[in-house]
Amino acid sequence: MLLNLAAITAIVGLSVSYFSFYLINQAKMSQDFQGAIDEDIVLNSIIDYTATAIQQRWCFSKTWLRDSKCDLSHPRNVERLLLNSKSLQAISDMRSRGVPIKVSAPVDLSYIEGVISLKDMTSSHPLHTIVEHLERGKIDSIAIEIQRVENDVIFSKGSEVYVSIKASLIRPLGGAITSRLKSMSLIVPRELSSFALVVANDLHLGKSIGPQQGDSAIPTGSESDAGLIFDSPVFVNGSVHLPTGGYSPVTFTENLFLGNGILRKSNLPYVPDSNGGQDERFYSDIQGLGGFKRGVTLTGNRDIGLDYLSGRLVGEPPGSDLMEKCIKMSLASSDLFMTSRSSLLGREISSNSWKGEHKVHLGLSLWNRFTEQKSVKVDITKEEGTFWVKPTLSAKNSKSIARVQIKIGSSHWVEADLHKNTQLSFQPRFTQVDNAVRKVNETKDKISNLERTIWDLQQEIKSLEGSIDDKKRHLREAKERLEHEFHKKEKDQDKDLIESLKDKISDLEREISSLESKIWSERKEIDAKKWELSQAKRDLDTYNRALEEERNPPQIDLVLKDKMMGGFPQFNQATFDIQFTNQKTFDDQDIRISLLAYDVGTEKGDDVRDYDDPKEPTGFKGYSRGITLDFNRWSDQFNLKTHLHKDRWIAPNSTEPIEDPVDTAFNYGELEVRCSDPASGFSFESVNWDISFSEQTVHSWTFADPFDGTWYITRLEAGDKPSFKVRSIVNRCIVMPDATFVAGFLNCKSFTIAPRSKPLKIVGTVVTNRLSIDPSALRAGIWWSNIYHPQAVLELQKVGILKPLKGGECVTLPDPIWHPNPSIVNLSNHYRCHPISLREKANPFTWTSVDPDCGMIDEAASRTSCKFRPKNFVLKELGRGSQ
Predict the structure, then answer these.
(1) What angle do CA 327, 331, 333 make, to 5 degrees?
(2) Angle at CA 560, nearest 5°, toward 554 and 563?
(3) Would you say 182 and 165 are in contact if contact means Cβ atoms under 8 Å apart?
(4) Which residues contact 257 (CB under 8 A, 6 or more apart)?
(5) Distance between CA atoms of residues 878 and 140, nearest Å
(6) What is this structure's pTM?
(7) Coil, strand, or helix at residue 11?
(8) Most C-beta atoms within 10 A of its C-beta, which of 90, 155, 515, 519?
């Protein structure tokens, strides 16, 4: 009996021992299993924590907290992992220009790693509640590694970045890894164009109107309504207020992003009625609306740009006067239509006829500019023959900026190109004598001979006149004697004497008549010689003038000089200097000087503008960019006849009113320097990331067809063959009942969908301070998506917004997009059939926030600058698993 009892006792003892070991082993296995679960939870939590930090661009401290001192030199700055090529180029540009930006070299990082001891994860550490369940003796620290993945299999084609996150639990002492988890994710900038709707403040579901500034509302309806379906993400800057009663027929099939808001109900944080029970386990199960099918993302960052846009915050935009002038100057240099009505204006500076000096201030209106020509003829002489000496330039290393014509009298004229700051000289010639000295001597000899001949003839006439006097005296004496004989008695008369006297009288009268005839002939010869003498003297004057011309020729000197102001040449002004030299040697005729300015619309001396009815200028008169100056000849001087004022502009060759004349008090040259100053750089130049453009939100977003009134979006605006609209900022946008398809990037202070009975499709992105929808529109149905949604792409192609270059349909493109050797045309067609092509004229919609990426640095800035810095990102996890 005792033996049996001893045996039983031994058996029981063995059994108890066996079962004790079994229970202990089971407990140990259970403990290990629980430890593995804890480790798995910790690793997954660490990766989720790190992924969230990546999206918010943290700089990690050594203990994996958010470091407040965060710049591009920080060794654990996540943003350095996410930099795309455009951001890297912007940083490189800033460094090359000496912009004070704190960076490390290289700027971009390929990985970030850290090892955090569990003892450093105090109770204030966000991961403390997760890691406190780890067995401290077994796990000593946590290793985390973030790596940018780039290889032959995974490579970036745009702004996307592939990132792997590894989390490992490390044992003490030896540092062996006990557990490891790896996640692979795709990170892309969260562009505004990815949203269907961007709301400035809160969104109220189940209300007709938002109660506060910047609030939007979607009214109640019924479950039978077609409702409003957002097939793309929606961004709400504040909170979303769930309906407190009734049903809001709105469904968010993609993520709802909240700025710094939360889901609210009755203005309190939303709490499921069943504490997350079977009926309210997911966001899609929330009662009273269609649901949030892809969940709600709390970003924790309010878009401050939306607050400025809605007026909740008021900023002081920079003075844009300088930039507007720079834009105006730039447009005037490129838009030929803008300067097509430009006139060449004139103001008198001085006019001294006695010295032959005349100065005229020239200016081109409408911000036009004198433009040097690369290839024009040096001169074109229109006058055949030898009237003009070939025009000469004082230098030939400059380019033409004007065409000048000089006309003397009515028949002699010449044209030539006028170069800036270079003297152009003209010499008219009034004689064809080859050897003026010989002509003068010959003419002097001829005059001397003529004068001697005339004197001889005159002396001979005097001699003949003396002979005539003697013969007339003898004749008178003979007649007296004859008369005396006739008075005697006949018997006393001497017949022989009477006959002798009669013969003598007859001879004397014949001789006198002969001498008088000879005198008349010689006097006639004297008259002829005197006329010949006067002609010879005139010739001598001409030849003497020719001699003087040879020694001091008449000359017209023209200089078109830079008009200076404060040391800056004015691009739209010039000083036209006219100098008449040796005025007395000019012919006694009036002179006309016409000048045609070469401007931005001139190519190789010809106007390249496309006029409907071009007119060929005659001597440039009547040509708006020409000016004609008339000079009257008076007393060996030339007086400026054309009436110019000294205190105001005149456009002598234009009959139209002067548009936008030159402001003589404004320094255009200094403006040109400021607009092209390397210190301010080019438009959209990169600037330091510390600069904020938030206060300029309204200014930066007023970029596309702004309108302060109401824009009615009708069928004609968006109907049968709609176009893709880009408008920002419009005061009120109202979608009218007849519009069934609306496509575009729209920034409207108020966006209203009016009562309607037909379904409405909206494709694109709407940024608004206030959304209001008529309940009838919810009954008819509204489908709303961004441009990238597959159905949206088909709709855009269907209506012809997306189409190939030469018409046709996108579905009929001959080659697939992955064709190894696509043609340029096919590449262009694929691009035009892709929604990315719609972003060309809507750069702000490619930003990652309404808070501007571009703006004016300060009031002295002459152009827009950009940071090229994505602020917000979307992380898509591609896979996660143990290693």
Answers:
(1) 120
(2) 140
(3) yes
(4) 190, 195, 233, 234, 235, 236, 296, 297, 299
(5) 30
(6) 0.65
(7) helix
(8) 90
